[in-house]
Amino acid sequence: MRIPLSVLSLFMTAGLAFGQNDKFTVKPFEFDPSNTNLVTAAWLGGLGCPTSTVVAAFAPPTFTTITVVPFKDTTCPTGDPRDKKNEGLLLAKTGPTNNNASAGATINGVRGEVLTEVGFDIRNGTHCGAGAPRFNIVLEGSPTIHFVGCAAMTTTSTGLYGQRKRATAAQLAADGVAFPPIPAGSRIRSIAIIFDEGQDNPTPSELGSGLAVLDNIDVNGNLVGRGPQRNGNNEGGNNGDHDDGDDDHGDNER
């Protein structure tokens, strides 16, 4: 059977797109060198921002029958099309901030790229502070860690789920968003997300929950809304991708 060139071109383009996205992964880790067992990090199904799904709604007026209807939260007009389980990234720190422990995630597959944008979706009722959750960004040619906190980023959309937070290259280069500022045109050496503020450091959005739930992690407009996969599929690999703090994240310092 002959395949039209236009169809073949479409398949090739789609393959390239998925290949480019697949190299960008977000892997949870726990930094807990004293084994306090007070931090956790994991991608979990059902916690993410629903970009395109359905709900089984009880139909009026009797509310005795169920109607399946489309549901899309305005917080996340775009998302990760590969996420089939509506995963969200749970980062939690129980107890005080003054504990040498943190939850986080390393962002892989971005080294060498020019940084143009970072962000994520954060669930309502969870912690969005000046210091956590935050991006720790290291640039090529420098050991400096640049902090970009949740509260410093711009809210670009809201909804029942929460807020979409973004910081553009221009904002990162200006005062008040990245500390210290990140010059435009800088290339990425490493990026991690860090959550190290405990229950004694509440924000207006929560009263000491000590946790954040994130989704659609954004670097340069590429969104990741699921954990690293095993065997190239969407089954498994979401809850077991923790570290014991062995990797050189360099991220618990502030």
- Strands, total number: 15
As residue ranges, the low-confidence spans are: 1-20, 232-238, 240-248, 250-254
Separate helix tally: 2
Which CATH class of the domain at 26-49 and 79-224 applies here?
Mainly Beta
Structural class, from secondary structure content?
mainly beta
As for the CATH topology of the domain at 26-49 and 79-224, it is Jelly Rolls
Q: Indicate the percent of residues in helices.
A: under 10%
| Pattern of helices and strands | HEEEEEEEEEEEHEEEE
Globally, the shape reads globular
Strand content: 35-45%
Radius of gyration, taken over Cα atoms and rounded to an integer in Å: 19 Å
Largest β sheet strand count, sense and barrel closure: 7 strands, antiparallel
Alpha carbon gap, first and last residue: 61 Å
Indicate the CATH architecture of the domain at 26-49 and 79-224.
Sandwich
Q: Can you give the mean pLDDT?
A: 87
